From TrEMBL:
Gene label: ackA
Positions that bind ATP: K18, H209, L210, G211, N212, G213, D284, M285, R286, G329, I330, G331, E332, N333
Active-site residue numbers: D151
GO cellular component, one term: cytosol
Record-marked site positions (Transition state stabilizer): H182, R242
Co-factor: note: Mg(2+). Can also accept Mn(2+).
InterPro entries the record matches: Ac/propionate_kinase, Aliphatic_acid_kin_short-chain, Aliphatic_acid_kinase_CS, ATPase_NBD
Localization of this protein: Cytoplasm
UniProt protein name: Acetate kinase
Pathway: Metabolic intermediate biosynthesis; acetyl-CoA biosynthesis; acetyl-CoA from acetate: step 1/2
Function: Catalyzes the formation of acetyl phosphate from acetate and ATP. Can also catalyze the reverse reaction.
Entry GO MF terms: acetate kinase activity; ATP binding; magnesium ion binding
Length: 396
């Protein structure tokens, strides 16, 4: 049996399970990273490993991933076949909601689980899946330390004025607040900035996490001051299939005049809108960039327009801007979106260097630019693996 301590990371989405395996003898080193998508429908498995092992990418039988529990069993079978000696001594979970109280990762105890179940109504589309993943992992690894890391935690440093809505006060006390999400990604970027650009880290930074889910976060000294997501992960920027910010009056109209049920509106806002809704073609930025249709171009225009608006708003909240950092699938890969976001932004101190942007450099602003523009690949799983290792070390 291997003596190397190993941590498993799990990120259970509504129809997907992302998993990572890390050697955590010292700072976590990735051994495997995989994804089972389309759980319950036509599941597909993709895994890549460190050097010397062939990646796996194949369709699964429906029964291999009928639900999160069977998907986890399938993932574990594959990991065991590749690493027969590895035993997970810790499992780290991504959990969308930690509520107002949880500002750090925690070890999962029955009491914490109860608290997280109480928070399910605040994230009905994500939290129950996260908790199902935890239940399955506790069953599979009864001896392992189980750790939860929260997407909301990084934003608990917000000033109160950012977290309140202009509702009667009792709703805040009931939990109706701006929580903010994508916290694991922002936490990672904050740590990376501290390592590669410590002076920037100390300053006023806006991070644009642009993936299927998209949001922006304003930080000072590496701590979150404001973010574009609010009570749910629906607010702020338009996303692959989510509306982003929308006048709540639209909901009243759809229900009262169009006769839609609340569930239908929810489905419309979460799954049929955003880039997909506007383009009528795809939620995927690569497909939209390639399409060149009027509708696809308009979807891109709206995405860029809203990022630029939020950039101005967040810079005002920070009292200025020292750096803009792009991350996420679009932020890290789309030179077009980065270029369009930064176009004519000299007034806020941003001057993009087109060649650096095209080359995919880390710093893509000109040497003269007052504020720096950077591309920093994010790694949410590594944040989870680090937390698992920290608790494991504290225990031994
Ligand atoms: P998730 O929120 O699911 O983690 P990702 O961060 O993986 O999403 O981002 C997925 C998005 O990134 C998709 O819209 C995809 O089209 C986009 N993307 C990935 N590579 C590129 C690229 N080279 N150019 C433009 N967009 C890209």
């Amino acid at each position: 049996m291997s003596t190397t301590p190993v941590a498993l990371t799990l990120n259970a989405g509504s129809s997907s399970l992302k998993f990572g395996l890390y050697d955590i003898a010292a700072a976590p080193v990735e051994m495997a990273m995989g994804l089972i998508e389309n759980i319950g429908k036509a599941p597909r498995l993709k895994v890549h490993f460190g050097p010397g092992r062939t990646p796996v990418s194949r369709d699964l039988a429906a029964t291999d991933a009928a639900d999160h529990r069977s998907a986890l069993t399938t993932a574990l079978d594959l990991l065991r076949a590749q690493f027969p000696d590895a035993r997970a001594s810790a499992v780290g979970h991504r959990v969308v909601h930690g509520g107002p109280g949880l500002a750090e990762p925690v070890v999962l105890t029955p009491g914490v689980m109860e608290e997280l179940r109480r928070l399910s109504p605040f994230a009905p589309i994500h939290q129950p899946h996260n908790l199902a993943g935890i239940d399955a992992a506790m069953e599979a690894f009864p001896e392992a330390l189980q750790v939860a890391c929260f997407d909301t935690a990084f934003h608990r440093s917000h000033p109160r004025v950012n977290d309140i809505f202009a509702l009667p006060r009792e709703y805040y006390d009931k939990g109706v607040r701006r929580y903010g999400f994508h916290g694991l990604s922002y936490d990672y970027i904050s740590g990376e900035l501290k390592r590669i650009a410590p002076l920037i880290h100390e300053g006023r930074v806006i991070v644009a996490h642009l993936g299927n889910g998209a949001s922006m976060c304003g930080m000072i000294g590496g701590r979150s001051v404001a973010s574009t997501m609010g009570f749910t992960a629906l607010d702020g920027l338009p996303m692959g299939t989510r509306t982003g910010q929308i006048d709540p009056g639209v909901i009243f109209y759809l229900v009262q005049q169009e006769g839609m049920s609340i569930d239908e509106v929810r489905q419309l806002f979460y799954s049929k809108s955003g880039l997909l809704g506007l383009s009528g073609l795809s939620h995927d930025m690569r497909a939209l960039e390639a399409a060149g249709t009027v509708e696809a171009n308009e979807a891109i225009d709206y995405f860029v327009f809203r990022i630029r608006r939020e950039l101005g708003g967040l810079a005002a909240a920070l009292g200025g801007l020292d750096a803009l950092v792009f991350c996420g699938g679009i932020g890290e890969n789309s030179r077009l979106i980065r270029e369009r976001v930064c176009e004519g932004m000299g007034w806020i101190g941003l001057e993009l260097d087109r060649e650096r942007n095209a080359a995919g450099d880390t710093v893509i602003s000109t040497d003269m630019s007052r504020a720096r523009v950077m591309v920093v690949p994010t790694n949410e799983e590594l944040v989870i693996a680090r937390a698992a290792r920290k608790f494991l070390c504290a225990q031994s």
